[in-house]
Amino acid sequence: MNGASEHGTGLPLQSIAHDLWAAATQSLPIQPSARELGNDVDAAYQVQDLLTLKSIWAGAAVSGHKVTSHRDLPCFGVLFDAMHHAGPDPLDCGHLIRPRVQVGVGFVVGEDLTGRSIDPTSAASVVSAVVPVVEVVDSRIATDSLEQVDVVADNAGAARYVVGDLSPAPDLEQPLSARLERDGKPAADDGPPIRPTNAFAWLTGSLRALGLPLLAGELVLVGELTRSLPGADADWTGSLAGIGDVTVTTRLAAASWRRSHPNTRSYA
């Protein structure tokens, strides 16, 4: 982590991180970070670093990273153990601000890649397995007109994810065909033609440049393989051709999911 707390212009990045943390914990959106950060993506990643530290201090453990894009520009966020929803209980999105559901693919890292940059053709050799993922993204920012710095500072929208069964890595050089079903009916098909190995390789290079680790057993989630849909109460199934399916319900039952856990927030 960069550990920096102030922007080059003297702007206190800690205040932006504080506002985003408060937005996540209180379910109240804030104004865009771009109003204060301009186009400084490096400063936005410093805000993300501060939020990561807050989550770790609150008891969270890093479980991996996610890669997404905004206006065709890649960016990444941090995944935490409490974002991972497992088991038959409904996934409670009620405390999120603007949840949206989409399909992604998860790469299980097979060896320690800290300090290494992997090219796309080598990605398959360092991935031990792949999984289909239903991802719930969230935005803690009160606008639909987000800038790159908004997405980065907001941890790339990372909120919740559900994974399916492990599968041997298929031909990772080709775009994956994905589908999202809502209540048993097709709701969203393939999104932008993302080659997951390109995204994986970009992430390893970015983490290396920032001095951040990528450890064996962690998950690299490449999202946006389908359009995202509003996270209304429904039964969701994400499908990846040649890999498998994963199903989750957001229809709430009487028992809530870990609502009292200190990490049950959009960052951790």
Condensed summary:
Strands 1, 2, 3, 4, 5, 8 and 9 form a seven-stranded mixed β-sheet that branches.
**What's the name of the CATH homologous superfamily?**
Fumarylacetoacetase-like, C-terminal domain
Radius of gyration: 17 Å
Shape: globular
For the report, how would you describe the main beta sheet?
7 strands, mixed
What portion of the residues fall into strands of 2 or more residues? 25-35%
* Through-space gap between termini: 16 Å
Number of helices: 5
Number of strands: 11
Helix/strand class: alpha+beta
Average pLDDT metric: 87
Please name the CATH topology: Fumarylacetoacetate hydrolase, domain 2
What count of domains describes the coordinates?
1
Question: Can you put this structure into words, describing what you see?
Answer:
This protein is α+β, with helices and mostly antiparallel strands. The chain has one domain (13-249): Fumarylacetoacetate hydrolase, domain 2. It has five helices and eleven strands, in the order αααββββαβββαββββ. Strands 1, 2, 3, 4, 5, 8 and 9 form a seven-stranded mixed beta sheet that branches. Strands 7-6-10-11 form a four-stranded antiparallel beta sheet, with no helix packed on it. β10 (235-240) and β11 (244-249) form a beta hairpin. α1 (13-26) packs across α3 (41-57). The longest helix is centred in the first third of the chain and has 17 residues, at 41-57. The radius of gyration is 17 Å and the shape is globular. The model is unreliable at 1-10 and 254-268 (pLDDT under 50).
